[in-house]
Amino acid sequence: MSNRSDVLRLAGDELRCCIQCGSCSASCSTADLMDESIRELVRLVLNDRCEEALKSRSIWLCTSCLLCTVRCPRGIRPKSLVAALRHINEAQGGRNPDQSLEDLFMGQVRETGRVSEFYLSALYALYNPTAAVQIMTMGLELVQKGKIDCEKSRISGIEELSRVFEGLEES
Amino acid sequence: MKLAYYPGCVAKSTGIEYDISTRSVCKALGIELEEIEDWNCCGATHCSNELLAVGLSARNMARAKDPIMTSCSICYSNLRIAALRLEDKHLRERVNSLLDSPYKGADVRHVLEVIMEAMDEGSVVVPLNGLKVAPYYGCLLTRPSLGLDSPENPQILERFIALLGGKAVAHPCRTLCCGGPIFMSQEEAASRSAFQILRAAKSAGAEAVVTACPLCHLMLDAMQRSIESRYKEEIGLPVLYVTQLAGIALGLGPEELALDKNSVSPLALVDGINASVNI
Q1: Spatial CB neighbours of B235, under 8 Å, sequence gap ≥ 6
Q2: Dihedral over alpha carbons A135, A136, A137, A141 (to 10 degrees)
Q3: Which residue has the higher pLDDT, A121 or A162?
């Protein structure tokens, strides 16, 4: 179970300064698709209703565009709140198509140091068959254009990178 | 001028034309690029552990011997955020204790500003002949604040288009997110944004769109056909990288700019521009 202080530690203590003005939600390009707006996510966390925030579909609709962060009059970084909720979701073993994209992406970075779009989309399609058709349709054209690199290589500084992962992971 | 080049992961695959045209344009402008040796992924928008994201960029910046230039707006934003956060002495010490060579500060530049500064009056040999170009900023070229231009009302692309002899058309979706980061998991939401942008550019009379980010490019160019069929509307708008547009005006050829790699072919447009010079 996570509580308010866990989220604040990850998202930044300035979250407590929120005045609920809604500039974040008004700036959000996917706000109309969200069940809880970004402003409401902040309120849920501050009212110690983190489990509701963690279950919200909204955390997966954030595109990381940072417009809310640019506009917040209180210097809050709502993207950091979304990142914190995604991170806790992952730590609690939450599994859904959106989480699997994050896991596959960062798993590749950890393993090889870089991301291969070919392996990322192939694996994602494997785990999420409903998305496969669309990914394959576009992928096929990009393969024909010679824009898909199937080579899987590993950077030589992988040990150093592992240290970075391990040293910054527990926070 | 010598710069440390950070290409980012897509430079080898879906963004290959950005990498090829970046190298060609920099060469033509006398900018020497040395690729950062053994660079790693910056985590893009998929690293929900923000401290780890800082660490990933710190390793890249610590390996650079010269000011850093990147072409990807996501990498650019991540490198800038990391440099800002690493001003915190405690965080810097913690990160440096994990790195082979320590991070000691970095100057991070985007290819757009680098080429604009390197160009002079004589650089444009093939002016774009008033080509109507829709500037598309996307998000992370200007966000967070304190980067190369205002995040609310940026003007650098308008100046860039004018510098090359084109005409920037005004449209309301210049800074609307393309939806790229969620296009695999939330395809409908992402396609909707990309469609809005393309339609706004087309209605404004644009003959092409210019962009500075490989993910924006993927959404607007590679996805354009699928968007056309989803929304049953023909668009047919070539989407060029800033380096491809600059390269055309610098007189570079289609191969040097990898123009054949774009999904919506810009070759007819380029032929038109070249013909206008020869008259």
Answers
A1: B198, B199, B202, B224, B227, B228
A2: 110
A3: A162
Report the SS3 class of residue B74: helix
Q: Measure CB to CB from residue A138 to each of B38, B190, B222 and give the nearest one.
A: B222
**Cα separation of the two ends of chain B:** 36
pLDDT tens digits along B83-124: 999 999 999 999 999 999 999 999 999 999 999 999 998 999
Smallest Cα distance from A145 to chain B, Å: 6
What is the Cα–Cα distance from B83 to B67, expressed in whole angstroms? Answer: 13
Q: What is the pLDDT of residues B145-178, one digit of tens each?
A: 889 999 999 999 999 999 999 999 999 999 999 9
Q: Give the closest residue to A43 by CA, choosing from A19, A26, A68, A60.
A: A19
Report the DSSP pairing between strands B108-110 and B68-70: parallel
Nearest CA in chain A to B194: A29
Q: What is the pTM of this model?
A: 0.96
What is the C-alpha to C-alpha distance for residues B163 and B160, in angstroms, rounded to an integer? Answer: 5
Question: Has the ipTM of the complex gone over 0.90?
Answer: yes
Chain pair A-B, CB pairs under 8 angstroms: 176
* Contact state of B49 with A171 under an 8 Å Cβ cutoff: yes
pLDDT of residue B257: 98
Neighboring chain B residues of A82 at a CB cutoff of 8 Å? 48
Put simply, the answer to whether A142 touches B14 (Cβ < 8 Å) is yes
Backbone torsions φ then ψ of B2, nearest 5 degrees: -120, 135
**Per-residue pLDDT band at B279 (split at 50, 70, 90):** low
Tell whether A31 lies on the interface with B, counting CB pairs under 8 A.
Answer: no
Task: State the virtual CA torsion across B45, B50, B54, B57 in degrees, nearest 10.
Answer: -20
Asked if A28 has any chain B CB less than 8 Å from its own CB, the reply is: no
DSSP H helical ranges for A47-77: 50-55, 67-71
